[in-house]
Amino acid sequence: MDQELLEELYQSLVLDHSRHPRNFGTLTCSCHAKGKNPSCGDELELFLDEKDNTIRDVKFSGQGCALSMSSASLMTQAIKGKTVEQAQTLLAQFLDFILDEKKLDEQYEPLHIFAGVRDFPLRVKCVLLSWRTLEHILRDETNQKIVSTE
Ligand code: ZN
To answer: What's the gap in Å between 52 CA and the centre of ligand 1?
Structure first.
């Protein structure tokens, strides 16, 4: 597929997920954390319903730019129903993919669409906001604390 067409597809996927975020809402559960990205103004709260080592449900609420919203939306789709270890593996791979330009396993399509932000540090923060918040929850570093990309 030619590069231009691919970028258009990626762009429309980002817009679709930012306009119609999946798994948007809140959950009543003890596993939640807030994240904010002051440089852009993105704010979100992530809720994780985990039982028997499985992520049974995940939701997020908040507001932000198209990149932060679409990244959170796609992340929730990717980890819902997975085990905690699988989510940790994906998190580590995605961080390496964005920050160190490492390869991302094909099974994690369509998260590859965010490769284009690597050269733009401020945009990287938007994309990683939900992932940093997930990291915080998975490490179980006290709830309620606000994760900041700064
Ligand atoms: Zn942003």
So the answer is: 34
Sign of CA dihedral 73, 76, 79, 82: negative
pTM of the entire structure? Answer: 0.92
Measured in Å, residue 39 CA sits from the centre of ligand 1 at 8
Is there a domain that residue 39 lies in?
yes
Whether 72 maps to a domain, the answer reads: yes
Position 5 scores a pLDDT of 81
Q: What is the pLDDT of residues 12-49, one digit of tens each?
A: 999 999 999 999 999 998 789 999 999 999 999 999 99
Does a structural domain hold residue 146? no
For residue 127, report the distance from its CA to the centre of ligand 1, in Å: 7
What distance in angstroms lies between residue 86's CA and the mean position of ligand 1's atoms? Answer: 26
Q: How many domains does the chain have?
A: 1
Ion ligand 1: residues, CB < 5 A:
40, 42, 65, 68, 126
Residue 145: other Cβ atoms inside 10 A: 10
CATH number of the domain that 131 lies in? 3.90.1010.10
